[in-house]
């Protein structure tokens, strides 16, 4: 696992309470993760979620993943936990607008220490967001605590790829993305196993590079004006952000960063 960025939770909260969030949502849509609904469906298929399940989404952002699960995967109820109040407020408003408030609820809190009752959830869910959490050990332990015996932990996350990051590359990547650290496939598999889970899926989705190509093409060919508006028409800032995305594009195609997909079942 690469770390050392010095990023704190307050740095992450600042991003998701300001224009950078709006920029990411412009580029990636309301499902702010690589692959959008395609990725969500692939994760749900791999997790074999039962009809009428109860789930917890850790680091749920605005809850778009939960709305997907309730609307399209026959999940009965979801509870989301996110540390950024602005995201939770936005998520509650969107659920109210879409008539889903009875099925989807939120807590502003620490995904590593939610305070929710243990052993009640059929599954714990996460999509490209656990990279923002400092203590991955505590996070996986909390996911295992929340899920009932025989239940599933299913998530995707940005991870260090098989080619590995140099210390310099890791520091630049972590600071730009506001990640305190970045885990790898083997690291997550080990943490899940340590928490009494059988890991059934631990893989590179192979989606990172192609989707970075897509996002940069969209910014260049279609969304330039929209992106400039979000950053107050600060061309220097926009070019700087685009440059960091090009840097990540290179890392992805070199196999240095990846999107990992994980499914684990808690022994019961």
* Rg, Cα atoms, Å: 18 Å
Count of discrete structural domains: 1
**The CATH class:** Alpha Beta
Report the β-strand fraction as a percent range: 15-25%
Number-wise, the strands total: 9
Using brief descriptors, characterize the structure shown:
seven-stranded mixed β-sheet, Rossmann fold, alpha/beta, single chain, two-stranded antiparallel ribbon, 268 residues
Describe this structure as you would to a colleague.
The protein is globular, with a radius of gyration of 18 Å. Helix 9 packs antiparallel against helix 11. Helix 5 links the parallel strand 3 and strand 4. The strands form two sheets. The chain has a seven-stranded mixed sheet with strand order 4-3-2-5-6-9-8, with helices on both faces. The chain has 268 residues and is an alpha/beta fold. It is built from eleven helices and nine strands. The model has no long low-confidence stretch (mean pLDDT 96). It has one domain: Rossmann fold.
